[in-house]
Structures are given as C-alpha cells and as structure tokens.
Design a protein that fits this description.
four-stranded parallel beta sheet, alpha/beta, 2 domains, single chain, two-stranded parallel ribbon, about 150 residues, Rossmann fold, 6 strands
Length: about 150
Amino acid sequence: MPPMQRMRGRHRGSDCILLTRPDTESRQLAQALRKLPVECIIFPTLEIRPAEPAAAQIAAIDSLDRFHLAIFVSANAVRHGLALVRSRRTWPVQVRVAAVGVATARALEEAGSTASCRRPTGTTAKRCWRIPRCAIRAPDAFSSCAG
C-alpha cells in the first residue's frame, strides 16, 4: 500500500482508524469515536505496566523533599509513578505538581492530587518550570515522571 493512501473501512466509503495505544485506552477512544462515520480497528502495539524501579528512582523518591516541582507528562506516569511514590512515602506538601496536558491533569485529580500548573499537550517537561505559576528559582531540583 502506498504510504499516503487512506485506509478504508469494511463499509463502502467509510474511513478506518487504526488505534495502536494499549488495549484499554484504544477501547476508550473507539467508544468516543463511535458516533463518527469511521471504523476503528483496535490493534494495541504496546502494553504499559510498572517497571521495576531503578536505584536512582528510589533515591529520588526517598529524597523528594529536596525538590520544588514534580512534572508528570502522561496519565500513565501518574498511575504508575504516583503509585510508586505512595508505596514508599507521603507526598511532601511543599513539592508542587505540574501536568503536561489535560489527560495528565485529569489523572492527577482522579488520584487525589491537583496540578498546581498545567502545560499544554506537546510541551516538553523541561519547559514547565518556566510557567509563572510553577516558577522556581532554577531547574536544579527537577523531577519528571514519564510513562
């Protein structure tokens, strides 16, 4: 198939969307798209699950008090990263939380935490410390949870 050719669904004239996120996320997206005249093919190409934490991650969690800001860059980072932190300690009240994107902020709220600042989707985590509400003196105490 030529790279720019559109995928066609089984029904004449319908477009087809290939959903490659993990199974649960693909099914949720397919449900949200069900009213559109498209056929969704659920084809998960990855599975996101918690990894065995490295020594550096454990050390960062154990010394979380020295950080000014923790940035979560995805809903999966919230689910797995925050769970790891909470399995070892309580969240220090002075450490602010930032979210990259609406879905990440929503995941934080569902986990009982609130992002003190949000950065639009598509922004790199390292730019979050420049947001006025998140402003810190310097990015020397910087932590990012990616997933």
